[in-house]
């Protein structure tokens, strides 16, 4: 089986962002000294990079699923999580990246073109890593001194892509099957393609490097084309794309064919017609010469045979009348190959200078359009949209879409009531609740935030402390509960410094009053003899009332 693969479908996923940490600093004599939860690390991204040493997409056929490293969770003590490692995938120069379209479980077909890696070192971000969640140290403010929650890390981007390789060569050899293209590239370079005496011997493009003096260029042997190739006949469109990036198109014509309905001029016109049909739906990048303006060269092959030489000399004036450069060659005797190599080298050298000048001109003419920026550095477009939807049964719901609301939902831990309250405050501050009211939403209606099956659904429960219902100008309080700030089992909230100082002075004054009373009793002799009842009216004394106390043990008279 051939090791050349020029189209694959891959599944890439960026690394997930790490969760933020919810932690409180612990110091001696300082309980609840403040939040110190670290941020989660960002996930790594997946990149596709054009590498001149890569020649095929074979690795992606066996390993189509690629993912970058995920970020780690933040820790207490202001320790941020580590970032995930990026994954750089090397692809051949000339790889085009498309968005894969198709239902799950079915074959994919190319959609929107995302990138064109036609230069060595070109890089494209195939899947972006998720952003790490913020720790509670970044969520504290004047009203929320010690948040008991942190934000979750965002999941990495995940999508299917189609990679399509379009060979980067200077000269493309095109022709009917068994015209001698593989023999020609083997005779002019060190390439060793498969050569046999039956049609469609070449099933994959072959590249060869040709040296002509001090000049060097690459030549591509494209598999044989037949009439109807632009419609998928023969090898069809599978390999027509490999001549999109070539600078020179060389027609290799078999002058020794035994088919009665073919002639050299007819073969040339038939292939040009197929190329014209293929070019109609072709989108070329900047700095590339349109295919119908690229120079053509006619190579009359197999001229070592007497019948073929006679036919070549007969049709040569017809090609020259079309303004084409014609060469009569033989891959068996190497006749005319040296002249052909030097001519192609000079033609390629001139075209390279022309392409560089054209690329510079296109770059200067390119107009960069940037969106208008508001004073806060954000775009002027709406941050979200609200849409009311209804099914056939009459059930209705509201769908909220927007980068911010969807990102906030992904960052929320719905098991933490305080985090849910924080999300509600953020949505209200963005204006989501006001927009839902304008769309006719009522308390208890279902609201979905996010796309399709990934949406988070909940029952809308607006509060008086948020949105347009605050008509008296009262500052909005944070929704959600923090059990550390509420009375529990008779314990009060944490005291302030002034309250501690006041309680301390009261305690010291009480101690001083007790000391004075005890000193007075000592001076009065109340503590001299425990058996003497100094206060006969004392209801709580150890000896009881004076008239009821028992006689002393030593008295009898």
UniProtKB/TrEMBL annotation:
Name of the protein: GTPase Obg
Biased composition (Basic and acidic residues): 482-491, 499-509
Domain OCT: 376-462
Region of interest called Disordered, as start-end residue ranges on this chain: 29-48, 482-557
Cell location: Cytoplasm
Family per record: Belongs to the TRAFAC class OBG-HflX-like GTPase superfamily. OBG GTPase family.
Gly residues: compositionally biased ranges: 35-44
Assembly: Monomer.
NCBIfam families: Obg_CgtA (TIGR02729), Obg_CgtA_exten (TIGR03595), PRK12296.1 (NF008954), PRK12297.1 (NF008955), PRK12299.1 (NF008956)
EC code(s) of this entry: 3.6.5.-
Main location group: cytoplasm
Keyword Cytoplasm included in the entry's annotation: yes
Protein function: An essential GTPase which binds GTP, GDP and possibly (p)ppGpp with moderate affinity, with high nucleotide exchange rates and a fairly low GTP hydrolysis rate. Plays a role in control of the cell cycle, stress response, ribosome biogenesis and in those bacteria that undergo differentiation, in morphogenesis control.
SUPFAM superfamilies: Obg GTP-binding protein C-terminal domain, Obg GTP-binding protein N-terminal domain, P-loop containing nucleoside triphosphate hydrolases
HAMAP family in the cross-refs: GTPase_Obg
EC category: hydrolase
Keywords associated with the record: Cytoplasm, GTP-binding, Hydrolase, Magnesium, Metal-binding, Nucleotide-binding
Natural source organism: Bifidobacterium favimelis
């Amino acid at each position: 089986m051939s090791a050349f693969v020029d189209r694959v479908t891959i599944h890439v996923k960026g690394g997930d962002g790490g969760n933020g940490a919810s932690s409180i600093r612990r110091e001696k004599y300082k309980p609840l000294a403040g939040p110190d939860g670290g941020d989660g690390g960002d996930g790594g991204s997946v990149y596709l990079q054009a590498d001149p040493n890569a020649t095929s997409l074979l690795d992606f056929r066996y390993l189509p699923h690629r993912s970058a490293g995920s970020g780690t969770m933040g820790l207490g003590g202001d320790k941020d999580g580590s970032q995930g490692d990026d994954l750089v995938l090397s692809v051949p120069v000339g790889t085009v990246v498309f968005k894969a379209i198709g239902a799950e479980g079915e074959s994919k077909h190319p959609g929107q073109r995302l990138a064109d890696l036609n230069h060595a070192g070109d890089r494209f971000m195939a899947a972006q890593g998720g952003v790490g969640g913020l720790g509670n140290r970044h969520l504290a403010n004047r009203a929320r001194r010690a948040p008991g929650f942190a934000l979750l890390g965002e999941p990495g981007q995940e999508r299917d892509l189609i990679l399509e390789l379009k060979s980067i060569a200077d000269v493309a050899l095109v022709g009917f099957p068994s015209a001698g293209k593989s023999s020609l590239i083997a005779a002019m370079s060190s390439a060793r393609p498969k050569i046999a005496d039956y049609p469609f011997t070449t099933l994959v493009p072959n590249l060869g490097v040709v040296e002509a003096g001090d000049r060097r260029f690459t030549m591509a042997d494209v598999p044989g084309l037949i009439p109807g190739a632009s419609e998928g006949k023969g090898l069809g469109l599978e390999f027509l794309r490999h001549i999109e990036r070539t600078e020179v198109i060389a027609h290799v014509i078999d002058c020794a064919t035994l088919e009665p309905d073919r002639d050299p001029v007819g073969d040339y016109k038939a292939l040009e017609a197929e190329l014209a049909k293929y070019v109609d739906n072709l989108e070329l990048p900047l700095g590339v010469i349109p295919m119908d303006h690229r120079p053509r060269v006619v190579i009359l092959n197999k001229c070592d045979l007497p019948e073929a030489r006679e036919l070549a000399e007969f049709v040569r004036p017809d090609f020259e009348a079309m303004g084409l450069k014609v060469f009569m060659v033989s891959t068996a005797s190497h006749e005319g190959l040296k002249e052909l190599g030097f001519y192609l080298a000079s033609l390629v050298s001139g075209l390279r200078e022309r392409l560089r000048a054209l690329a510079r001109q296109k770059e200067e003419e390119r107009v960069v359009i940037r969106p208008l920026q508001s004073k806060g550095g954000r775009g002027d477009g709406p941050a979200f949209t609200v849409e009311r939807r209804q099914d056939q049964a009459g059930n209705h719901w509201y769908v909220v879409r927007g980068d911010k609301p969807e990102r906030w939902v992904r960052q929320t831990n719905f098991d933490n009531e305080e985090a849910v309250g924080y999300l509600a405050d953020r949505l209200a501050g963005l204006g989501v609740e006001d927009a839902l009211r304008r769309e006719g939403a009522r308390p208890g209606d279902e609201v979905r935030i996010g796309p399709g099956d990934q949406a988070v659904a909940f029952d809308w429960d607006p509060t008086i402390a948020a949105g347009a219902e605050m008509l008296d100008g009262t500052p909005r309080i944070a929704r959600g509960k923090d059990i550390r700030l509420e009375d529990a089992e008779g314990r009060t909230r944490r005291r302030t410094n002034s309250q501690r100082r006041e309680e301390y002075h009261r305690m010291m004054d009480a101690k001083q009053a007790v000391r004075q009373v005890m000193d007075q009793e000592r001076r009065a002799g109340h503590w001299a003899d425990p058996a003497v009842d100094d206060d006969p009216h004392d209801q709580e004394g150890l000896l009881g009332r004076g008239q009821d106390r028992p006689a002393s043990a030593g008295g009898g008279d």
